[in-house]
Amino acid sequence: MQRLNRHDFPGARYSDRVIQFGEGNFLRAFIDWQLDWLNQHHDIDAGVVVVRPRNRVVEDSLNQQDGLYTTLIRGLNAAGEQVSETRLIRSLNREIQPYQQFDDFLALARAPQMRFVFSNTTEAGIAFAEQDRLEDAPASSFPGKLTQLLWARFTHFAGAADKGWLIVPCELIDHNGDALRELVLRYIKHWQLPPEFARWVLDHSAFYNTLVDRIVTGYPVDGEAIAAQLGYEDRYLVAGEVYYQFVIQGPEALAQELKLDQLAPEVKFVDDISPYKAQKVAILNGAHTAMVPVAFLFGVESVGEAMDDAAIAGYVDALLRDEVIPTLDLPSDELHAFADAVQRRFRNPFIRHALLSIALNGMTKFRTRLLPQLLLAQQQTGQWPPRLTFAFAALLAFYRGEQGDKQWPLQDDEYWLQQFAELWPALNQNKMTLEQLVQAVLRNSHHWGEDLTQRPGLASAISQHLQNIIVHGMRTALLQLR
Q1: What are the φ/ψ torsions at residue 157 (nearest 5 degrees)?
Q2: CB atoms within 10 A of CB 267
Q3: What are phi and psi of 239, to 5 degrees?
Q4: pLDDT score recorded for residue 299
C-alpha cells in the first residue's frame, strides 16, 4: 500500500504563515484540523511549519509524508447519533527539528509572511531555564526558543511594527498567554537585550490566554482497517472525538485574520476566560470526579459503561443540573448545553476511559473540582447538596482500597495514603466511629484550605451517606439517594 505523500496524493498547498511548537496528536487533531477547514472554506492560506521542541532525534517525521496525515473524528453528535468522519489534512507543510536544523529554525523569523505561533509543549513547557543563553542553538526551553525567534525577527526587520506575531499557547495552565509573555520578557532581561526590543514585543505581538478541550486518542487500534478503507498507509493517522472547544481571550486581530469566528460556537472570543475555566473544571472534570468512586464501587470499569447504567447516569445528570450549574456564572442555557455535551462525550462508544486511570489524586481533584461547588450550593440553599456530599462519601469509601475480597490500587499523595491506611483499620477495629473518620479527613485545613469540621452539618451529612454505602452497598445507597 502506498504511503501518504504529496506526489501521489496531490492537492491544495498553503503558504508558511504558522509556526507550531509541538508535533503531537492533540495539535494535529485540534489546531491543524481547524486551520485545514478554514483554508478550504475561507481561503486563509495558513500553512503550518511544525517545530519539534524537544531534542529528540527521530528517523520518521511528518516530513516522510510531506506533512500530510488523516484525522478520524468520531463519537456522538448533538442528536446522539454515531458519526465517523475522516479528513486528509493539508494545512501542515513540514517539520523542523531545531537541534539539528538551527539555521532553518531561525529562518522562520525572517519569513515576512509568518504571522502566527501556536504551541502545546505540555504544562511543563512554559518554564524558565536559567542556563539558557541567546547563543544556544537552540535554547532548551520553549519560551527561550520563542524569544530567540522574536529577537531574530526584530533585528531582521529593524523593529517594524507590522512584523509582530499573534501567539496562541494551548498548554493547560491558567492564563497561559500571560505566563508565556512574562517569560519572554524575563529572557529579554536575562540576556540583556535592549529595552526597545521588549517594547516591540509588548506593543506589536499579542499573547492570547486560551482554554482548549478535545479528547485525542492518537493512532486508533483499528488503524490498519481504516487505512484499507482510505487506500493509503498513514503512520500519522490520528483519532479524536467529535466535541471540541477553543476559548480565546485577547485582541480581535486573531479572529479577523484567521476567521476563527467562523467555527462558532465551538470557538469563542471572550473578554474573560475565567468563567469558561470554571465551567470546564466544575462540569467536565467535576463529573468525572463525582462519577469515578460511585461507578467503580458499583463494579463498573469504564466511563462508557457507567453512563450505560441508568442509576449512575441519572446521578451524574442531577448532580450537574441541580447542584453544580446553579453555582456557576455563565448563562444557564450555555451551562446546560455544556452539560449535555459532556454526557455525550462520556457515552462516546469509540473511547474506553478506564475509571482507575482517572482516579489518580482523587483527594486533590475533589478539592479543586467539587468542593467550591459544594460550599457555594450550601450558601445558596442553606442545605448541604445531597449528591455532592454523596460524592464526597463515595470518595472516602473508595479510599478504603477494598470491598469484600476485591482490592484496588490507590494513587495519591503519601499523606492521604498513610491517613487512610490508619483510619479504615481503626474503624474496623472499633477504635473510632464513622463520623470520627469523616471528621479526621475534614479537619485537614492544609489540604482543604479550612477546617471543614467547622461547617455545621457537613460531617454528619457525609457520614450518613458513607454509612449507607458501607451497610447497603453502593447501588442501594445511590438508589436511596434518588
Answers
A1: -100, 15
A2: 19
A3: -105, 140
A4: 95
